[in-house]
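pls design
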């Protein structure tokens, strides 16, 4: 479904992502891991369009997205959740989800939507928004401003908005970062629900190896911007070069 071909970006003399080629199939969850500074989030930014590649390309269902903006890639089917939440802080929880649903229905960017005009006449969208809040355990905060939510609930709201957009590819960048112990299982369950849909592809950047082991069908390892390893979780995690680069375990330490 999704493919990157020799994807590369340079910042001056520094190559942050270096010729990364990968294919991601529908019905799979791929964890993208690596040490800090490995290029994981930069790779995500290249795929979703926050950064323009110096070289290489991004394809979705055979269509070249490389020249498209981030909003255009979203409407093409790439959905992205960020390390730092991207919400409309002064709108309520329900209004944030409604806005995402209307954007998906009308095929518009956020700025083009005539947000306040249509809601009283569209009960189906209102009901879908309510259902998403129930699904993400946010119904009790329906009328609260997004800016006033605890961090964990802001992350859940961002995922609710991402689900509302119904992309073909879901991209999660450390979705459990900074969350309380009580909130983490809710987010992981939402990702499992998405994973159960064989038409969806999930990319997950995550530092917590227990989460990676539980959810991933495949692990891609980046190191210094390059693709170091790619395969099933057991094989990749057991690889000496991966343990040394990512886990800080040298071959001699493992033998000891």
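designed seq:
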């Amino acid at each position: 479904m999704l493919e990157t071909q020799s994807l590369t970006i340079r910042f001056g003399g520094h190559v942050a992502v270096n010729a990364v080629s990968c294919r991601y199939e529908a019905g799979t969850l791929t964890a993208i891991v690596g040490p800090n500074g490995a290029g994981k989030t930069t790779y995500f930014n290249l795929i979703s369009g926050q950064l323009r590649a110096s070289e290489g390309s991004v394809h979705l269902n055979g269509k070249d997205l490389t020249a498209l903006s981030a909003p255009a890639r979203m409407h093409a089917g790439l959905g992205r959740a960020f390390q730092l939440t991207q919400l409309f802080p002064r709108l309520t929880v329900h209004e944030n989800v409604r806005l995402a649903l209307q954007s998906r229905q009308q095929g518009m960017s956020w700025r083009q939507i005539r947000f306040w005009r249509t809601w009283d006449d569209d009960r189906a969208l209102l009901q879908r928004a309510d259902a998403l809040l129930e699904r993400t355990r946010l119904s009790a905060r329906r009328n609260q401003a997004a800016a006033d939510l605890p961090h964990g609930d802001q992350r859940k709201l961002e995922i609710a908005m991402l689900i509302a957009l119904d992309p073909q590819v879901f991209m999660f960048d450390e979705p459990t970062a900074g969350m309380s112990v009580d909130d983490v299982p809710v987010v992981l369950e939402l990702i499992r629900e998405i994973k159960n849909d064989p038409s969806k592809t999930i990319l997950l950047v995550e530092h917590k190896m227990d989460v990676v082991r539980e959810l991933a069908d495949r692990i891609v390892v980046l190191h210094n911007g390059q693709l170091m390893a790619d395969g099933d979780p057991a094989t990749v995690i057991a690889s000496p070069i991966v343990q040394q680069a990512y886990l800080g375990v040298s071959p001699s330490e493992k033998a000891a």
